[in-house]
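Reviewer 2 asked us to include a model.

Predict the structure of this chain.
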Amino acid sequence: MNYRNPKLLKLAKDAPCVLCGSNDGTVVACHSNQLRDGKGTGIKAKDYRICYCCHKHHVMMDSSNELSREEKINLWEDAHRRTIGWLFENGHLEVK
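Predicted model (C-alpha cells):
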C-alpha cells in the first residue's frame, strides 16, 4: 500500500520551486517516477517521495525530451533533497 498524506501535498502551495525559486502559483508536489518509490501504471509514488517544483520543471522531469532518463532522475533527486530541507527549515517537519 502506498503512503498518502494530503497535508504534505498541500504544503506545495506555500513553497517556492526548489529548483528555480519561482513562486508563480504553479508549484505542486511532483511525485517520483521510479518504481522503487512505489510508482506503477496509474499509481503515483509514495507521498513522501515528492519535490516542490513549478510547472516548467515538473514538465521537464516528467515528459520532456530535453533531458535523458538519467538526467531526469538526478534532477528529481536533487529537488527531493531540497524539498526535504525546505520542509525542515520552515518548521513543517520535525523529529520528536
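The beta strands are 28-31, 50-53. Residues 69-89 form the longest helix (21 residues). We have added this to the supplementary material.
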